[in-house]
Design goal:
- The chain has 92 residues and is mainly α.
- It contains two helices and no strands.
- It is extended.
- The N and C termini lie far apart (46 Å).
- The chain has helices at residues 2-9, 60-66.
Length: 92
């Protein structure tokens, strides 16, 4: 599950945390999902990459639900890095 969490996290705008406790390898086949984005949804008639109407494309939450997994939005602590200063390296 940690592999799928890491993969899906790359295509969303938020971190994912695996709290399932599931171990092992699973074969999971899905179709694409609507992008998670801040702001209004795409206008009516917008087409997905495969040409289908974007309104018919499921969300990532719906994809996981079809697999019997529940995704919940929660607040939690996250590790972040702050870059306070950067310089070009000097020649040696």
């Amino acid at each position: 599950m940690s592999d799928i969490v890491g993969y899906v996290e790359n295509w969303t705008d938020r971190p994912f945390v695996d709290k399932t406790g599931l171990k092992g390898l699973f074969q999971i086949d899905t179709k694409g999902w609507q992008p998670i984005q801040v702001g209004p949804p795409p206008p009516a008639g917008t087409k997905a990459e495969d040409g289908t109407d974007m309104a018919d494309v499921p969300t990532v939450f719906q994809i996981f639900e079809q697999l019997g997994l529940k995704m919940e939005s929660q607040k939690d602590r996250a590790e972040i890095f702050v870059i306070e200063h950067i310089e070009k390296p000097t020649a040696n």
